[in-house]
Amino acid sequence: MKVIWVADYDLADHKGGAQQTNQVMIDAGRKRRVEIEIMKCREFDRQRIAPADLVILNNITQEKSDDINWVIDNRRYVRYDHDHWAWQNIHYWPNLYAKSLLNIFLSPLHQEQCGTLLPAQNVYLQPSPVTGFYNLG
């Protein structure tokens, strides 16, 4: 299976919690022999996405609306959302949550805020704390 993971940043750009959490998920997928390619929003390329089996739309606040709407209309995708405020941009992508195969949220408040935008397939991932995992240095 080939997956394209679309995000604003990766660990090389920014070592924030979202990027570290993304890397944990990507590493876990690769251990399961899933081919995962990271594509930053500024590198968005429909030709690279076209052959993928699945697209993960992660933090996408820097992406052009027409590119995201192209994914929504043409590709199988999952919305993996870190930021509870991102749903407020739904006017740019009216079908972002409704057409996804799965919507993944990191808090129940975040999931609740999306309210009626959500189809039946939604997941709240409760992060389990791992002491010493994140390095601020």
User: Largest sheet, if any?
Assistant: 6 strands, parallel
**Helix count, DSSP H or I runs of 4 or more residues:** 4
Q: Distance between termini?
A: 35 Å
The structure class reads: alpha/beta
Major sheet strand order: 2-1-3-4-5-6
Shape: globular
- Which H/E pattern describes the elements? EHEHEHEEHE
The number of strands is: 6
Report the β-strand fraction as a percent range: 15-25%
Question: Mean pLDDT, as a whole number?
Answer: 80
Gyration radius (Cα, Å) is 15 Å
Low-confidence stretches: none
Helix content: 25-40%
Summarize the structure.
By secondary structure, the protein is of the alpha/beta class.
Question: What order do the helices and strands come in, and which of them pair?
Answer:
Blueprint: E1 2-7, H1 17-31, E2 35-40, H2 46-49, E3 54-57, H3 65-74, E4 77-81, E5 102-105, H4 108-114, E6 122-124
Parallel strand pairs: 1-2, 1-3, 3-4, 4-5, 5-6
Give the tags:
single chain; 137 residues; alpha/beta; 6-stranded parallel β-sheet; 4 helices; globular
What can you tell me about this protein's structure?
The chain is of the alpha/beta class and 137 residues long. The chain has four helices and six strands. The protein has helices spanning 17-31, 46-49, 65-74, 108-114, and strands at residues 2-7, 35-40, 54-57, 77-81, 102-105, 122-124. A six-stranded parallel beta sheet has the order 2-1-3-4-5-6, sandwiched between helices. β3 (54-57), α3 (65-74) and β4 (77-81) form a beta-alpha-beta unit. The radius of gyration is 15 Å and the shape is globular. The protein starts with a strand and ends in a 13-residue tail after the last strand. The relative contact order is 0.15.
